[in-house]
Amino acid sequence: MPVISFANAKGGAGKTTAALLLATEVAARGKRVTIFDADPQKWISKWYELPRKSPGINVVSEISPASITEQITLAAETSDYVIVDLEGTENLIVANALSVSDLVVVPIQGSSMDARGGAKILTLIKKLEKIVRHDIKHCVVLTRTNAAVTTRAMKAVQDFLSAQNIDVLMTPIVERAAFRDLFEFGGGLSGLDTSLVSGVGKARENASLYAAEILERAITVPRKRWYNVFKRAS
Hints:
Rossmann fold; 7-stranded parallel β-sheet; 8 helices; 42% helix; 15% strand; P-loop_NTPase; DNA_Partitioning_ATPase
């Protein structure tokens, strides 16, 4: 089943939020989801430990460069979707995970630093494609955007991505309190208490449209999985 990885070589780009929104939206549709939490901050693992749960989601936090490709491939055999939240850097775990991904999502905020971090991942994908000898489908999602105003910095990022002919989701992830509060209360958006969290309705609409675009791109063609492309003795 589809393996969807979230990567940006700069931390704080909104990877974890984007990954968790997709996971909870997919699980809400009755699908089985395995999340690999490869971010050192372990925010998704901490979310998973909260009392309020999202049925259908399993989180794996014990990951190593040597094991991650096999772990992902085995999880894909028993889960409807595998989602990988990667570290905000370029390392062996990131490279190995990208090499077995059916779709790589690169979250980018409206800043030049985020754009440069995203560009590093896109360059890495091109290198990996030569090694694994197949295309690695990828796209960009704009994150933490303002629903009412497009800033000058965001416009510059959009122009840069357009000039590079990069696939960008039509639905950005808007800055919403409800998205942040998932990490406080646990579970998915549908279970948030509207008396405690504002804008849940708009957040759910945003998340649903975003997830639909990702899932449309994640349709897979069966192919051989590549194990530990960059495996080396530790």
